[in-house]
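Ticket #4471: structure export looks truncated?
Reporter: QA, pipeline team
Priority: medium

Steps to reproduce: submit the single chain below to the structure queue and open the exported record.
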Amino acid sequence: MNKNYFEIIRAGINSTFQDLGRNHLYHIGIPFSGAMDNRNYLLANKLTGNNHNHPVIEFAYQGPHLKYHGNPINIAITGDVSFEIKKSDNLIDGKCYQSFILENNDELDIISTNKSVYGYLAISGMFDLKFQWSSCSINTKANIGSNNGKKLSDNQEINIKEINQSLVKTKLNYVNTKIENIRVIKGTNFDYFSEEGKKIFFKNKFKVSKLSDRMGMRLEGKKIENIVEPNIRSEGLIKGVIQLTADGFPIIMLSDHGTIGGYPKIGVVISADYDKLVQLTPGSSVKFQEVDLNSAETLFKLYDLETQNLISQI
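Actual output as written to the record:
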């Protein structure tokens, strides 16, 4: 049987294996990790005929340039991404949300994301990966997950242990939309901040800083006054929680966040807005809008229903 694998010509920026992440490990300091943009992750897998928790390659800004060796395989890329497929002397402009067949010696060059951060590459099969706590997701801060917890690197080989027999072409008509108004519920330390500080939080725009990664998104803007204590005893954190650092600026905890922290928490991004939040590039504007818990739950149900409807169209 032929060996099926990708040769990495260029690894790209922060290219890692991700799935749905890890559950029930906060008590030992391990966050969920997993795909940053859950909807695009799920759509990539569906387009290649996989189940919902198959590993994919997540990349930021610039993706990998890969050369494929082996039997024909379907691939799909989701997000807002420019990519090309080279077949012998033919160059094909790739389109997101549809599958393409790669054959032996074909090259896939994921050039860049377009005014967004993350994109996803799925294959019609299974990468040969080691799982840790029932997940392959890589957390580079803690060296957890497949690939020894490291980003993909130039000249590395990515082995494929199985390929789906079906090479059916699939397509979805879908366009990613941008978001500026991020809906939040009040955080547990909301009353630590002055009335003017609360007003600034909800009325003013903030700018996404360059100091943002899978662990957290730092925001720049007008300082928010803390009238109680800028540092608190360390408490548990969750994905999407917004802490106010001692300098008065917000930082949003993302998928690889630390599980405890000692900054007061002014709010939490609702789950329905998380996928679009993480796609905001440095320099993007953010404005927070308060909703109550019941509304947040309803909005998530609607977002999840919309995602499932999209999956059913493939």
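Status: closed, not a bug. The export was complete when the record was re-opened. Leaving a note from the reviewer for reference: The longest helix spans residues 293-312.
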